[in-house]
Amino acid sequence: MKNLRRTFLSVIFALTLVLTLSACTTKEASTSASHRVTITFWHGMTGVHKTALNKLISKFNHSQTKYKVVGSSQGDFTSLQQKITAAAKSKTLPTISQATYTEVPGFVQGGFVTSFDSYIKKSDLSDLYPAFVQSSKYQGKYYSMPFSKSVRVLVYNKDLLKKYGLSVPKTWTDIEKDGIKLKSKGITAIAFDQTFMSELDDLAKQGGTPLVSNKLKAGINTTQTLAATHIIWDMLQNKTATTAGTDGYGSVQFFAGKTLFYSGSSAGISIMTASTPKGLHWGTAPLPSYKGKRATSLAGNDIVMFKSASNAQRKGAAAFVKFLMSKKQTINWAEQTGYVPLTKSAQTDPEYKRYLAKSPTAKAAAQSLSFGYLDPAFLGYDQYLVDLEKATSEITANHVTPEKAMGQLQKQTEKILKTK
């Protein structure tokens, strides 16, 4: 009986100890979870891109116990920008937000962003493409970190190429020649989006005189830039090129079989894949060269951090950003969205190679990164962009000559740059 009683008491003691330890562990976990530093993150992602971002946020939150990122979609990027401006005035800014790097000068002037310099090491940026690192720096400080980046690529109709015995163009001259051949067939060579701003930017860069140089000098009405502008102007006048107009995107005419090529953002490839008409076969290629040079504009959004964030939140924001910029996560992001991976090592990663083998339309974007570039950021960039869009629209809709439109844009841009 004594042995039975001792055994019973031992069991009771053991169970009590287990329950006590379990309660303590649960309490500690609960306490740890409740003491997580919350990082509020505004973004402009919708649809499949929002879904992919939410997965990344969840993955980060489960990867550690110090921080909790709470993502909040603010609608499209125009709405996001407006809400940032309003929140800066009412002092209700989040910890971090998506934003274009060209918005940084205005944010710095407004005094409501802080740099990542104290929280990011140079080694954290060593694997990123140089263009991304360069554009993140303003006035000697890293006020933004790259995230959702895309490039312009050329989309081509495989069926039409085969039917008319044509090849994927290597130069802009090739596209001009294809347009002349196909004009009598009722097919336009290339469709742009509503304007051809990005393509003009690329041609000017390839021609040797950027629209705005890194030294903030306007080269808009130079002989080289005007010659580059005439590449598109001449095709528009000859009806061998077209813009989207009210369609919004040139992919609409491309999918209707009206154009042989379409120049668009790699971020739209996943959407194009989902909406491809049955029986239409297409591929992608890097944008063609001009004057023997290649250059493709990089676009997309960075992440900025606001001064109102506490030191703990800033550390958490930096940890989240480093997570997003890691090779594994940037590959995952690229695979899910069509944005490009930020790291150079991604190109040789077995997982990414397998993805490209299964998704060949993503190859052109990956191949373009080595010659990708970004415009310099400066105060008034948004107004410059508005003026550039107006100039290209005048050329398209009102048949204003490049000499007149670009001459006017040169004056407007010089005025903006003087007040930088």
What's a quick, concise take on this entry?
By secondary structure, this protein is α/β, with parallel strands linked by helices.
Describe the SSE topology.
Elements: H1 2-34, E1 37-43, H2 47-63, E2 67-73, H3 77-90, E3 96-99, H4 104-110, E4 113-114, H5 130-135, E5 137-138, E6 141-142, E7 144-157, H6 158-163, H7 172-183, E8 188-191, H8 197-206, H9 223-237, E9 241-242, H10 251-255, E10 259-265, H11 269-274, E11 282-286, E12 296-306, H12 311-325, H13 327-337, H14 350-358, H15 363-368, E13 372-373, H16 381-397, H17 402-418
Parallel strand pairs: 1-2, 1-3, 8-9, 8-10, 12-13
Antiparallel strand pairs: 3-12, 4-12, 5-6, 7-10, 7-11, 7-12
Structure description:
- The chain is α/β, with parallel strands linked by helices and 420 residues long.
- The chain has two domains: 184 residues, Periplasmic binding protein-like II (D-Maltodextrin-Binding Protein, domain 2), CATH 3.40.190; 192 residues, D-Maltodextrin-Binding Protein, domain 2, CATH 3.40.190.
- The strands form two sheets. Strands 1, 2, 3, 4, 7, 8, 9, 10, 11, 12 and 13 form an eleven-stranded mixed sheet that branches. Strands 5-6 form a two-stranded antiparallel sheet.
- A hairpin with a 2-residue loop joins strand 5 and strand 6.
- Helix 16 packs antiparallel against helix 17.
